[in-house]
Amino acid sequence: MKTLVVFLALGLPAQAANLTMPFPANQTFAETRPLSSHRIATEPFDGTLPSITAEGAVTRRIWQLTGAETTLQILAPLRAQLIEQGWEEVFECATRACGGFDFRFEIDVTPAPQMFVDLADYRYLAAQRGAAWTTLLVSRSGELSFVQTTTVDPDAEIAPLDPASDPVAPSDLPTPPNTSDVVQTLLEMGRAVLPDLDFRTGSTELAQDSYASLADLSDFMKENKTIRIALVGHTDAEGSAEGNMAISRRRAESARTLLTVKYGVAPGRVEIQGVGFFAPLTRNDTEAGRQTNRRVEAVIISTP
After folding, report:
1. Predicted pLDDT at 302
2. Does 152 share its domain with 174?
3. Where's it found, cell-wise (predicted)?
4. Which of 33, 58, 170, 267 has the most crowded CB, counting CB atoms within 10 A?
């Protein structure tokens, strides 16, 4: 895995957003890239995503919060803080009004487990102050809420981040003995394909009643009792977007049923999502490629 050089702004740059989370929060991710770009949505998705691309020092921070019952309870006080600091709101939307899954997969989101976006419950805000831009993305998953803030500041001065202050990464989770390939990948990347779960085109049923990947996943979760995961279903590109979204969710549900009923993982620790054909691993113009894309992935969504 490539090592990313991480930077942090010196003090508070003139244009940076300085936000206080409105609920108990743990910052799980922070980086600033000295010269990069960030795509900013300016209107809802409607076949395409109206957007601008801002360039400069791109600072991203992610928090996990507890105690909020809605995404608006989080976004509203953060929006008020931005306005008080002189930021001007350019665009704001919520879930369906944003464009649903199409919008979510067009914007720039840090992968799970740092950031998790429930396709049925998220909010987005873009604000501008001078030449700088800030975007907020808020979502909830069970009892946890997630906030991603991204600020693009062409005038920021930066210096290397002290490694001692870097937030805990998923790879800092305890590694159980005799770790399987699935669990090792989950620890290193925060997500892992369950490779032995095989689906035919259009099918949502699993042919077997036991799978090594689910057994390994259940052992890992039983040894790490505070971890929660999402099972995310995927399809090939055959059929409509709406139909594939439904199929992918049912595939995730089939895997969840086995994981909870046969392998004894508590249902409250396993969520399901379906993303249809919007996150392929490879091309869909061969049968081998389509088979690869029909899959279920495990994604860590909360850690100790």
Report:
1. 67
2. no
3. Cell outer membrane
4. 58
